């Protein structure tokens, strides 16, 4: 039996109270949201699907009316847990007999429904109720209220942040604002004891994860819009983190496309930053795939920006990049471009570290590069 049929059956067993009576009983429940008679009629007739909040309100009102007329309904028929489970099952497409229920399920599949199964397993029905009753509200208006209890329970919120990142660019910016307000970054305190470098704050678990997921989902489509939106919202400090995430995960062809999009939007500084981050942040074994792409595309200047970025992370990354290009025919030219990126005044220190690690030939190349153009 689908949800609408169950509600209709319960309505009949409760003595078929009028919509006005049900409206009055719901108003007495003290819930945040009341229900108009027209809404009650729609839900009981199946003209539109009811949210979990509305279902529980109707069940409670009908149970109360049955008690008032001294014809109480068996406990199992009005058990809230049973109704919550039935509602959760309907979100997964369990109801097919009711056309209205089928229609809403199809719309939810198209819009990528929220995975409430972990909440159901943990009996977090209050959070399921927030999600179901907020289907028409902006995600930014309610997401922190779901994330906070998850963190308190030490549950992962990654699935919710990944789903939230699929919203449009403007809403993504608003979600970032809302998460930052709810989970602000830790402030540096010069008098505090040194923090554990491996410790993860709630900010790291929320805003940082959300930015990374946004880079995966929106990187190739909406990067200029998201960067401009973050800055206009006065949270431009996240633009570098966003670009770093793109540099780490997007394939070479997408990196090239994003660079073009940024330049078309007159965000050339950001396009250069992205190339720099490919060299400095991307897994070493995957840097060359981007270098090769730009080489084959004839974008020698952009290739140089990537390779120079690799040198800004110190001697160890220089050593690893040099090892990656050692079997390439143009290895001398590529290594020269890497060494161009060594910050001024750091050549001697880097050369000494390389020599101590047994890389004497590379150390000598570093020293020579200090006296070669470009300076």
Q: What value does the average pLDDT take? A: 87
Number of strands: 0
Distance between the termini: 77 Å
Run of helices and strands: HHHHHHHHHHHHHHHHHHHHH
* Major sheet details: none
Tell me, briefly, the overall form. Answer: elongated
What percent strand? Answer: under 5%
Uncertain segments are 94-111
Helix fraction by DSSP (H/I, runs of at least 4): 55-70%
Tally of helical runs: 21
Structural class by SSE content:
mainly alpha
Query: What is the alpha-carbon Rg in Å?
Result: 29 Å
What does this 3D model show about the protein?
With 375 residues, the chain is an all-alpha fold. It contains 21 helices and no strands. Helix 17 crosses helix 19 (331-339). The longest helix is centred in the middle third of the chain and has 31 residues, at 202-232. It is elongated and about 95 Å long. The relative contact order is 0.05. Mean pLDDT is 87; it is low at 94-111.
Short description:
The protein has 375 residues and is mainly α.
Write the layout of secondary structure elements.
Layout: H1 3-13, H2 19-27, H3 37-45, H4 52-68, H5 80-91, H6 99-110, H7 117-121, H8 125-133, H9 143-152, H10 158-164, H11 169-182, H12 202-232, H13 239-249, H14 252-264, H15 268-281, H16 284-296, H17 300-310, H18 315-325, H19 331-339, H20 347-356, H21 360-369
Helix pairs in contact: 1-4, 2-3, 2-4, 4-5, 10-12, 11-12, 12-13, 12-14, 13-15, 14-15, 14-16, 15-17, 16-17, 16-18, 17-19, 18-19, 20-21
């Amino acid at each position: 039996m689908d949800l609408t049929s169950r509600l209709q059956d319960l309505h009949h067993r409760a003595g078929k109270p009028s919509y006005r009576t049900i409206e009055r009983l719901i108003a007495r429940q003290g819930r945040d949201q009341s229900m108009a008679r027209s809404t009650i009629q729609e839900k009981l007739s199946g003209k539109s699907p009811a949210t979990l909040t509305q279902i529980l309100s109707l069940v409670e009102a009908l149970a109360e009316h049955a008690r008032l007329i001294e014809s109480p309904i068996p406990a199992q028929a009005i058990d809230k847990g049973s109704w919550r489970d039935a509602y959760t099952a309907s979100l997964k497409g369990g109801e097919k007999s009711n056309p209205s229920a089928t229609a809403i399920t199809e719309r939810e599949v198209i819009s990528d429904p929220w995975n409430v199964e972990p909440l159901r397993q943990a009996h977090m029905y209050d959070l399921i109720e927030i999600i179901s009753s907020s289907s028409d509200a902006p995600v930014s208006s309610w997401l922190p209220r779901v994330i906070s209890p998850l963190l308190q329970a030490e549950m992962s919120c990654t699935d919710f942040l990944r789903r939230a990142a699929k919203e449009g660019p403007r809403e993504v910016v608003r979600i970032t604002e809302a998460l930052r307000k709810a989970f602000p970054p830790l402030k540096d305190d010069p008098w505090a004891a040194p923090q554990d470098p491996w410790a993860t704050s709630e900010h790291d678990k929320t805003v940082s994860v959300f930015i990374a997921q946004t880079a995966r989902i929106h990187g190739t489509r909406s990067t200029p819009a998201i960067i401009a939106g973050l800055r206009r919202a006065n949270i431009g400090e996240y633009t570098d983190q966003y670009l770093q995430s793109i540099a780490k995960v997007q394939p070479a062809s997408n990196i090239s496309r994003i660079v073009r999009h940024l330049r078309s939007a007159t965000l050339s500084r950001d396009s250069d930053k992205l190339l720099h981050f490919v060299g400095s942040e991307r897994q070493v074994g995957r840097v060359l795939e981007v270098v090769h792409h730009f080489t084959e595309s004839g974008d020698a200047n952009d290739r140089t920006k990537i390779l120079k970025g690799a040198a800004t992370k110190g001697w160890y990354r220089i050593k690893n990049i040099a090892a990656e290009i050692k079997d390439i025919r143009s290895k001398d030219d590529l290594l020269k471009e890497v060494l161009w990126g060594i910050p001024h005044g750091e050549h001697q220190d880097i050369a000494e570290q390389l020599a101590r690690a047994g890389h004497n030939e590379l150390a000598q190349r570093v020293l020579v590069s200090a006296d070669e153009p470009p300076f």
